[in-house]
Amino acid sequence: MLEIKTISLFLVTAVAEIVGCYLPYLWLTQGKSVWLLVPAGLSLAAFAWLLSLHPTAAGRVYAAYGGVYIFVAILWLWAVDGVKPTTWDLVGSSVALVGMSIIMFAPKHA
Predict the structure, then answer these.
(1) For the chain, which residues score pLDDT lower than 50?
(2) In whole angstroms, what is the distance from residue 76 CA to residue 95 CA?
(3) Taking the model in full, what pTM does it have?
(4) Is residue 38 part of a domain?
(5) What is the pLDDT at residue 109?
(6) pLDDT at residue 110, as a whole number
(7) Which of 3, 36, 66, 68 would bridge with 10, disulfide CB 3.0–4.6 Å?
(8) Domain assignment of residue 24, yes or no
(9) What per-residue confidence (pLDDT) applies to 55?
(10) For residue 80, is it within any domain?
């Protein structure tokens, strides 16, 4: 059950981070409203808070989270940007998820 909770939390965290970065991108590159910075800031604050909810060392959480972030960014590429991931995108994100799983779920010895 810990694994499902951890992965779910990482997925929500990744969406919060991507939204928090994507909204300023729209403002800076596509001339969208400066008001997008308000939800962007809130999203990035939620991102930082969500990372703090994991019951393990921060460095381990940050390292493992990166693997899930890569996976969600590839999904975002497809769902939001409308760009179909390449085979190598999928292979790379799969490798990142394997790395996340090893970091988070392998037995820990002192």
Answers:
(1) none
(2) 18
(3) 0.88
(4) yes
(5) 75
(6) 60
(7) 68
(8) yes
(9) 77
(10) yes
Backbone angles phi, psi at 85, to 5 degrees: -65, 145
Number of independent structural domains in the chain: 1
The contacts of residue 63 (CB under 8 Å, 6+ apart) are 103
Q: Which residue type occupies 74?
A: I
- In degrees and rounded to multiples of 5, residue 59 shows phi and psi of -60, -40
Question: Which of 105, 17, 102, 98 has the alpha carbon at shortest distance from 56?
Answer: 105
Which value, in Å, is the radius of gyration of the alpha carbons in the chain?
A: 15
Asked whether residue 96 is domain-assigned, the answer is: yes
State the residue range of the domain holding 56: 2-105
pLDDT at 78: 97
> What does the pLDDT read at residue 73?
97
